[in-house]
Amino acid sequence: MKIPYLKKKPELKSCHDVTWEDNYSWIHQKNILEVLRDKNKLLPEVKDYLEEENKYTDHHLENTKPIQKKLFDEIKGRIKLDDESLPYKDHTYEYWTKTTKTGNYSIKLRKKINSDKIELSGDKWKQKVYIRHTGYPGGQRKLTAEQLYNKSSTRLVENAVRGMLPKNKLGAVLYRNLKVFSGSEHTHEGLNPTTIKLSKLK
Q1: Which of 50, 61, 113, 182 has a Cα-to-Cα distance from 170 of 20 to 30 A?
Q2: Burial degree of 145 (CB within 10 A; 0-12, 13-18, 19+)
């Protein structure tokens, strides 16, 4: 079986007064995020090369498949699948990664320092948008999760709960019973609330 080769298409590149010849710059696709979601959008030449490369690899490693599975299981047995990295602090945020048994990739997490009750995965602090309307022409207003949290630390929880309630009169009544407080202090001490640990219930 012949070794597959990707076609060279020389192109001159320059940066910082340095010029070089790049034979494979044509592979780069500006819509790479769409390609990751839909493999059919990959360049046909690149797709054919990758398929030939996979066939070539499978052909030469055919007799190693049993040991591949054995090595994979051994390595997997030494790795804790449900794990979290230590948080890295950067100004007002903490960053860390999390892995699970069900996912193929690690989950990137970020949260504001001293906001232990709210966690948003990925970059949703900036990407998630809340929209409201004043009722007047051109009155649409948008706020990111970060802007909404800075404006009111309880609004994120209130909006999340409202989204889970039925969109009718019953949902409106239930929502009016919701009381969200930032921190451990609240105005319901007179009701003598008690802490219930669900882990100890049988």
Answers
A1: 182
A2: buried
In the chain, pLDDT over 70 holds for what percent of residues?
85
Q: Is residue 140 part of a domain?
A: yes
Q: Say how many domains are in the chain.
A: 3
Residues 2-34 pLDDT 10s? 899 988 999 999 999 999 999 999 998 888 888
Q: Do both 129 and 160 map to the same domain? A: yes
Clarify whether residues 91 and 51 are in a common domain. Answer: no
How many CB atoms within 10 Å of residue 119? 13
Q: What length is written for the chain?
A: 202
Instruction: Determine the structural domain holding residue 20 and report its residue range.
Output: 11-67
DSSP state of 141: E
Helix pair angle (155-164, 169-176), 10° resolution: 150
